[in-house]
Amino acid sequence: MDLALKIINGYRLGIEEAEDFSNSCGVLEMCEMADAVRRHFFQNKIETCSIVNARSGRCPENCKWCAQSAHNKTGAEVYPLLGRQKLLDVAKSSDAAGIARFSIVTSGRALTDAEVQEIAEAMIKMRSETGLKLCGSLGLLSKPQLKTLFDAGMTRYHCNLETAPSYFPSLCSTHTIDDKIKTINWAKEVGLEICSGGIIGMGESSRQRIELAVKLREIGSMSIPVNILNPIKGTPLENSKRLSDDEILRAFAMFRLVNPTAHIRFAGGRILIGALQKMLLKSGVSAAIVGDMLTTVGAKLSDDFAMFENLGYDFKRTS
């Protein structure tokens, strides 16, 4: 536990040291250390958020994991941007359930100025009529577009790096990690917090998972959604083998040890791991997306809340 104490006191792991540690440490010891770090910075609190798939399908990007890419034949639902009243109604449902944060998510590379304005108008209503903290996952927006959304009440912007910079070109060629980081930097410049994470189990190495964790710290991500690949028929990754329980536990624990003060967030793929979720909640996880994911079914909200309560976590919204 000496390393956990060093991390609590400000020490930060680099890629080489983190890899050496992971290779030499037992998985249960690693998880215990991650949990000690989590308890220090987050006590017993779980931050919840929900998402709405506000525009679906026909994305021009060729991301190999994605059901919504026009390059992949998945049968994903296709519809244009939802209107502001529909977005408000969904937000109010999340608010009534006591969820802390709400994110509007759209398919596609970016949005037009008119679409950004529509979402901004919806967020102004959400800010006045709910107690939710507002987030957006809207692609590679410009700095003025991000400022419009910040002024409307959005507090956090989501743009996943998805995987290690060294592996990303193997999975997508229509945009780059640098494109993402440009948007992330603009979001920070206008005053937004950053939510950025990735997907594990897409063929990357354990070292590349560590590389991603370190890069997320470098870009200042304070909320790190960790998705477990749920292979979708019709995508190039449809036959990917699920990571072992040991690999999943080590990955989550390492995201926590490398990013001690960021939320490590349960995201997509939870339906694949069942009871392992309880172990992960004792291995560094401090936040969760609750309800359905973008194109896959999530856990029932009541089941999530019951699990958090049974494990002694405080998931009640405080403001």
Automatic annotation (TrEMBL):
Pfam families registered for this protein in UniProt: BATS, Radical_SAM
InterPro entries associated with the record: Aldolase_TIM (IPR013785), BATS_dom (IPR010722), Biotin_synth/BioAB (IPR002684), Biotin_synthase (IPR024177), Elp3/MiaA/NifB-like_rSAM (IPR006638), rSAM (IPR007197), rSAM_sf (IPR058240)
Sites where the protein binds [4Fe-4S] cluster: 59, 63, 66
Keyword Transferase in annotation: yes
Cofactor binding mode and count: Binds 1 [2Fe-2S] cluster. The cluster is coordinated with 3 cysteines and 1 arginine.
UniProt domain Radical SAM core: residue ranges: 41-267
EC supergroup of this enzyme: transferase
Keywords in alphabetical order: 2Fe-2S, 4Fe-4S, Biotin biosynthesis, Iron, Iron-sulfur, Metal-binding, S-adenosyl-L-methionine, Transferase
EC number of the protein: 2.8.1.6
UniProt-annotated binding residues for [2Fe-2S] cluster: 103, 135, 195, 265
Reactions the enzyme catalyzes: (4R,5S)-dethiobiotin + (sulfur carrier)-SH + 2 reduced [2Fe-2S]-[ferredoxin] + 2 S-adenosyl-L-methionine = (sulfur carrier)-H + biotin + 2 5'-deoxyadenosine + 2 L-methionine + 2 oxidized [2Fe-2S]-[ferredoxin]
Cofactor(s) the record lists: [2Fe-2S] cluster; [4Fe-4S] cluster
Domain of life (superkingdom): Bacteria
Metabolic or biological pathway, per its Swiss-Prot or TrEMBL entry: Cofactor biosynthesis; biotin biosynthesis; biotin from 7,8-diaminononanoate: step 2/2
Gene Ontology MF term list: biotin synthase activity
Family: Belongs to the radical SAM superfamily. Biotin synthase family.
Function noted in UniProt: Catalyzes the conversion of dethiobiotin (DTB) to biotin by the insertion of a sulfur atom into dethiobiotin via a radical-based mechanism.
UniProt cross-references to PANTHER family, sorted A to Z: BIOTIN SYNTHASE (PTHR22976), BIOTIN SYNTHASE, MITOCHONDRIAL (PTHR22976:SF2)
Self-association and partners: Homodimer.
Name this polypeptide is given: Biotin synthase
Organism whose genome encodes this protein: Intestinicryptomonas porci
